[in-house]
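Handoff note, outgoing to incoming analyst
You'll be picking up this chain. Sequence as last confirmed:
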Amino acid sequence: MKVEEGFPGVYWLRYPQGKKLATRNALPGQRVYGEELVEVGGVEYRVWDPYRSKLASALHLGLKEMPVRRGSRVLYLGAASGTTASHLSDIVGEEGVIWCVELSFRPMRDLLSLCGRRTNMVPILADARDPASYRFLVGEADVIYQDVAQPDQTEILRKNLAAFLGPGGWALLFLKAKSIDVTRDSREVFREERERLGAGIEVVEFRVLEPYEKDHALLVLRRE
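Most recent structure output, in case you need it:
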């Protein structure tokens, strides 16, 4: 088996029969969601499942821009139980931080347990529509990661961009078309949401996430 670094902190484990995406496990021997652990040359990697993580699916589909790297400060909106956030935790390392905002109590219980083990993850029980409610807990971010499946998901991102992201900062916006309008074609919805971003936000990359996620797309954005 060969290990190749695709982006800083993001690896491809190459087997004769194919490849798997992975991050280097910050807590060797510990799983987060039942993922496969693979040891190569004395280093343990966590396989990053593209059917369990939208960012992993985008990477499998050839994502060209991956702004999260070692030392990054990431504001994660819609962290749920922490599946993807745990892989970002591996990537940013001890020098970085993942502020994990989640509104629902049930996934927050799992998230609290995970953050107790991973000290670069900070759990925040709050509504992403109200960034002022967690402003005192979060510093300026390098990257905002948003996976909030609500009709106003683009407006939620705009509010958080204004509060936490400086010029040159990045955002990963995962759009779920059917949460915005279940009656319309997904690509039409994606096109309108891009326009709603408004001035001062550059769309660097756009990826539809099929076949891994139906009616989902990723916008990689940069604040001008």
